Amino acid sequence: MPASYAYLGPEGTFTEVALRMLPETATRELVPVVSVPAALDAVRNGEAEAAFVPIENSVEGGITTTLDELVAGEPLMIYREVLLDITFALLVRPGTALSEIKTVTAHPAAQPQVRNWMKAHLPDVTWESSASNADGARLVQEGRFDAAFAGEFAAERYGLVPLVTEIHDAENAQTRFVLVGRPARPAAPTGADKTSVVIWQREDHPGALMELLQQFAIRGVNLMLLQSRPTGQGIGNYCFAIDAEGHISDRRVAEALMGLKRACPQVRFLGSYPRAGVAVTDVRPLRTGTSDDEFVAASDWLARCQDGRF
After folding, report:
1. Percentage of residues of the chain with pLDDT beyond 90
2. CA dist 257 → 45, 106, 214, 230 (Å)
3. Distance from C-alpha of 185 to C-alpha of 258, rounded to nearest angstrom
4. Which residues contact residue 151 at a Cβ distance below 8 angstroms, ignoring those fewer than 6 apart?
5. Buried b (16+ CB within 10 A) or exposed e, 187-199
6. Which residue stretches of 153-310 are H helix?
7. Would you tell me how many other CB atoms lie within 10 Å of the CB of residue 27?
8. For the whole model, what pTM was predicted?
């Protein structure tokens, strides 16, 4: 397997900045690719050891392209996550004034994060999406657009200037990125972990989703993300992407996953991995009996009963 990481390029994306926060990138070749599907396909095809892609932002939620690519196709697994604070700059060719801007571009995920700023300062401009924010900067460099929303750090790379900086509609906006590789044994638990799965309902009936979510609730497992995605099999057919606190080796999480597998026709495990920016997960049991120690004690009691050692 090549010692390389594929990421959403070109050079100068927020994805590249977040990727370089991982210490191991010092010993990897970082390969920019044109899209999230291309990055994940590089792993599936054996062209890269791992892919680094955005999966969620604090303004719009899950990045649907990434979620859909992880749901479909050959299974992949998440190994790490990185959180990056996001603020945009309006990048233009030197000499361009704000009043001269008629067209602007950026990645689709950027638009909800600068929409109100655009209404106030560029109400009549035409927006067109680009493959990434850095690719939008490249298109401005080539003269295809007047301006691009991107990281200020991309300006020098593409011969542009930041006309306006610190643009964001929401304070403390963040994007979550994940390092994705081929399936393998998850890393050992750290005490501050996250487990990601995708589930499909057996049938649609009143309370069907609640029945599945109860597998987590009755075991005191907190959910951090729940997002529905269409299966492509007709209106009303959805699967659900879930992020839960804890590691698959935690007894409460393992039993919740086993409960899901019994109840669901299909469950895709996407990985257990360290949570970014958290030292220890605070387990908040809703009732007694949901700590790992209590799960272990109950299992030991059952084994003694089965052996006649009550």
Report:
1. 75
2. 29, 39, 11, 22
3. 17
4. 12, 13, 14, 17, 88, 89, 133, 134
5. eebeebbbbbbbb
6. 154-157, 208-217, 251-263, 292-307
7. 7
8. 0.86
